[in-house]
Amino acid sequence: MITRTAPPGELADLIGGSPSGTALRDRLLTALAADRTPSADGTDDRARHVHRRLRLLAGNLPPVAELLRDPEQLAVLSECAALVEPPLYMAVINHYVLCLRSVVALTDDPAGIGAPWRALATGRTKGLFLLTEIGDASSQLGIRTTARFDPATGEFVLSTPSAGAAKFSGVGGSGVPQTAVVCARLQAGGSDRGVFSFVVELTDDAGPLPGVTVSPTVEAPSLPLDYALVRFDGVRVPYRQWLRDGARIDADDAFHDPLGGPDARLARTLSVGQTLWATLPSAVAAVARQCSVQALRFSVHRRAHGRLAPGARLLDLRNQQHALLGALAESFALTCAGRSAQDLWARRPAADDRCAFGPRTEGMTFSPWTAVDRPLAVLKAVTVRGAVRVAGECQHRCGLAGFLGPNGLDGYRRCTHVFETAGGDSQLILMDAGRTLAQEKDGGQPAGPLPDVPADRSGWWPAVARAQEARLQSDLHRTVRRRTRTVRQRSQAGRTGLGLWNPLLAAAHDLGEAYGTRLVADAVAATVASVRDPELRFVAEALATLYGAVEARRSAGGLLATGTLAPAAVRALPEVIDGLCDRLLPHLPLLCEAMGAPQDAVPAPLGADDYAAALHARLAR
Questions:
Q1: What tens digit of pLDDT does each residue of 319-348 get?
Q2: CB–CB of 79/137 below 8 Å?
């Protein structure tokens, strides 16, 4: 059983969530820790290993219908998988967050699908989500895999028209039954009806089913799973396995879709991304917390032999404090953002889960993601980037130990970095967010520099983040209006898209990132404001303020360029950070206990009191 020295109740709730979420976390971590079978390196063994771990999780989870409608429980599942075995987390995303959630969200009666649903829900079959096609950038906007309706049989015929339309996912290996939700372009009545999802059985214990071609395994060292390319050649899919989401094809071959258009249908089909974006921030926040805690514990016990202070602890050095306490503060901010993402998803209209989110197809330019849900997609992008920074900084600050596999930091860094692209490309999300924000602005003049508000106050960074977003938004809005007039004068009518935005892509990205930074700052401020205990409030405010000061120093160039911060304010930041580190150091044992995973759940040598002995013991197993 997982054991933990419980921090004060409100701090535990602040980091870990509700008592039911904590109980589920302990149950899953206990089950995974008790499963001592090592990860396998061979392709076949690795596929079976992941599938066995998925079945293990399934046996310790609530019923699927309950799980898939509870953002906290899904987030806890994601956190546990990411902490214990990052490659397993990608399998969890495919199986639960994308495959099973698509079925629940896009059909009135999942049980009506029959045997494929029952096998997925119990974990007997591994679930996948096949969206990305390898041939083109932004392939989600130009899906080429087709599902042609055959009125003679009432089935759909799934086909891959070219090599570039092959799907890519963790479908490699052998000996594992797999079923996928496949995104394909529906053709009915001689017309393109938009992109829908279909439940398709891909493999059984003996390998690919008829009409399904799975390539040899494609290695991806950053996240070692068995990836492969998948093609379809006339695979017949029963009508009941069409996730039609209120659409229908009548007996006379007449097609009806309540959404009314291909763009709205694409956004709806991809709305499963909301579930990923609502839970991924919590998973990467848990990884960031674990990296920070392990690196801090290592630095507390690690002695240096530099001639300035022979025998000093690494954490006595100011640069180490700035880096690692700053990482802890950022992981706290990511935790707050993760909770905010869960709340955003939970507050969406629930009376009709089908079509409740109201797709915003006007935002579908560089990618479809912000059209599905702008704040959640942007939170995904900025929290992943924050976790990548934390994991990379912690790895660097631990020297050689940071790169050794048993210590986990390298695996965490690679896992978080994968999600810069996976789950919706972060760069495209931020560019689309910035583009739509610029078009919403009234074009007023930006305000002058902020007054000299002390940077060691918890409200300073949210004010700075709001001001920076407003300045970038106003500047880009005015630039777009001016360039629109110029481009229209030089171009044929209606051909202003690339000519208008090509020189502005970096500015759109910066605005989208500033919007995400402000969302995180607001989430941190709301969390700190909710703390009742005075001592804990003191610690939470110090973490929040340190996060803001470190973030301001990292992005000082942009803040100076817009006039949001004056040079004197930037020059004062190192001293501000020193003072905040001094405030937090006495509370470090409490913070590490609250923010790290139990040692018996994630037994990395790096977090042990005697690192060398723990590493020797790990290698001697």
A1: 999 999 999 999 999 999 999 999 999 887
A2: no
Mean pLDDT is highest, among 29-38, 394-403, 596-605, for 394-403
Q: What does each C-alpha distance from 546 to 201, 245, 360, 552 come to in angstroms?
A: 50, 46, 36, 10
| Cα–Cα distance measured from residue 56 to residue 71, given in angstroms and rounded to the nearest whole number | 21
For residue 503, give the DSSP letter. G
Provide the β-strand partners of residue 188: 191
Q: How far apart are the first and last CA of the chain?
A: 21
| pLDDT above 70: residue 280 | yes
Whether the CA torsion 341, 60, 125, 243 is positive or negative: it is: negative
Q: How far is CA 118 from CA 70, 121, 198, 281, 498, in A?
A: 20, 5, 16, 29, 47
**429/367 Cα distance (integer angstroms):** 7
pTM for the model stands at 0.92
Residue 471 predicted with pLDDT over 90: yes
> Per the structure block, which two tokens stand in for 245?
């989401």
Dist. CA 266–CA 249, nearest whole Å: 18
Q: Distance from CA of residue 359 to its chain's centroid?
A: 20
In sequence order, what DSSP letters do the residues of 572-611 get, joined into one string?
THHHHHHHHHHHHGGGHHHHHHHHSPPTTTS--GGGSSSH
The two tokens of residue 24 are 């589920």
**Contact present, 563 and 528 (Cβ < 8 Å):** no
User: What pLDDT score was predicted for residue 501?
Assistant: 86
CA-closest candidate to residue 8, choices 525, 535, 524, 526? 535
Q: Of the candidates 11, 384, 338, which has an alpha carbon nearest to the alpha carbon of residue 346?
A: 338
Q: What is the Cα–Cα distance from 57 to 38, expressed in whole angstroms?
A: 16
CB-based contact 79:601 (threshold 8 Å): no
